[in-house]
Amino acid sequence: MIASKLIIAGGSGFLGQLVARWFAPLGWDVVSLTRDAGSSVSPARRVTWDGRSLAGWVEELDGADALLNLAGRSVNCRYHARNRQTILHSRLESTRVLGEAVASCRRPPKVWLNSSTATIYKHTLDRAMDEFNGVIAGTPEAKDQFSVEVAQAWERVFEEAPAPQTRKITMRTAMVFGTHEGTVYRVLRRLTRLGLGGPIGGGRQYVSWLHETDFCRAVQWLIEHQGISGVVNLASPNPVTNRDMMRTFRGACHMPVGLPASRWMLEIGMFLLRSESELVIKSRRVVPTRLVDAGFEFQFPQMKLAVDDLESRLATGRGLAKNWHLDGGESPRPENAMTAGTALDSAGGAD
Q1: One-character DSSP codes across 198-229
Q2: Sign of dihedral through CA atoms 116, 49, 30, 62?
Q3: pLDDT band at 266 (very low <50, low <70, confident <90, very high)
């Protein structure tokens, strides 16, 4: 029996290695396109690419069952001119060259899932944003104009890629909670344990999030359900306010109090951390209407459930949560740790 084949562009980052460790135990042949094809604990077979040119990797796409593009420079940085250019070009160039590769295939991938970000939706406190009624716009208050423009350009390049034989899905992904060091969950957890787990910037802004297990399950579900194409929000159906999120973290970390951070304190802190306050102050109230309406069931729909699971796995040293088949069965659980990049936002972040 020939194994199904998954190509992950940008497979060396947190989400890429997460997906590789999910699909490999299911018997998939997983190939990671990466700038560094050296040693790795990932189960994926690593193939070198530069994200710009058609050289040495295109044949991997021919006959593949699925292509997942997660490539793009991490947004966890200061948005000066050089980083802005790299953030934009790393997303556009990689998506464009993948489109050229798919068009050249005699047997193109059956489905192409391309990353985007939940940040594309307008900063909002009073209404949820879904695939049908969400407003796409930047807001000066949230300092997100650059991020929204990047997301729009990224999606436009993907939409324009000629792939008539390939089902295309744009994944507008919220921040993904995972146990590995360097991810947003570990950063928030560390701040909470240091007594800094109070509301940030007022705490009224909404946080859209997703447990790492549900991210992998959603990717698998989208690959398997051939009737789904177009834009899909990957986020828990229950976004929470920053205030409520930090309360949940304090409870999990057994910290009765947490010092709040005002807007000016946040700006100073993010400058010292060489990052941008937009990642924290923007209200992302994004919901996954298409997934829910199509019958996808979240294993961790509530933040407390997600946090309790991640804390349990950190306490026991377990790796990725159980890989549940979508029909209710169970497949082997990957146990080994993996290297990962920072995942403060899921708008890319891997080579």
Answers
A1: S-BTTS-SEE-EEEHHHHHHHHHHHHH-TT--
A2: positive
A3: low
Please return the burial class of 317, using the count of CB atoms within 10 Å of its CB with bins 0-12, 13-18 and 19+.
exposed
Cα separation, 206 vs 288, whole angstroms: 15
- Report the distance separating Cα 235 and Cα 208, nearest Å: 6
CA distances from 53 to 12, 29, 59 (A): 18, 24, 13
Token duo for residue 58: 């295109």
36-84 pLDDT tens trace: 766 566 788 999 999 899 988 999 999 999 999 998 877 767 777 787 7
The neighbour count for residue 27, using CB atoms within 10 Å, is 10
Could you give phi then psi for residue 109, rounded to 5 degrees? Answer: -55, 145
For 71-91, give the secondary structure using H, E and C: CECCCCCCCCHHHHHHHHHHH
The answer to whether the CB of 297 falls within 8 A of the CB of 305 is: no
Residue 345: which region, alpha, beta or left (left: phi > 0; alpha: psi -120 to 50)?
beta
- In order of 222, 321, 332, 335, the CA distances from 316 in angstroms are 31, 12, 17, 11
Mean pLDDT taken over the chain: 85
Which one has a higher pLDDT value, 248 or 334?
A: 248
- Strand locations in the chain, DSSP E? 5-9, 29-34, 45-48, 66-69, 111-117, 167-173, 175-177, 206-207, 209-211, 230-234, 240-241, 323-324, 330-331
pLDDT, tens digit (0-9, with 9 covering 90-100), for 125-170: 999 999 999 999 998 888 888 899 999 999 999 999 999 999 999 9
Query: Rounded to whole angstroms, how far apart are CA atoms 310 and 321?
Result: 9
